[in-house]
Amino acid sequence: MSGGALAQAILAVHLGVIAFNVLGLAAIPLGAALGWRWVRVRWWRLAHLASWAVVAVQAVLGRACFLTLWQDELTGAQAHPPLIERWVENAIYWPLPIWAFAAIYLALFALVAAMWWLVPVWRGA
Asked: Quick check: helix, strand or coil at residue 123?
């Protein structure tokens, strides 16, 4: 696999992680209200909490996401990425200082952790 193809694969994985994290934030309280059993499954909730923990810890340590770093290393200074790739990158890479990301990610991690009590996981699930 070439560097460019690997960078695109990393971008796709990154998008999947972002979708998992963000959609999970909405799915847990919505699912609790609508009686969706899967939002109370322990392994799914642990994966969601762990994923947010990794994001928050990286930001608190002043580091960009390791997926972002890997992708940047593989692409270097690509002058003109394809149009769709530019749209995706503009949607997920915001020009904010790391402290802003740390504050946002810590708040979201706290919300995910609080949902363990607000929408409890089923025992044995």
From this structure: coil
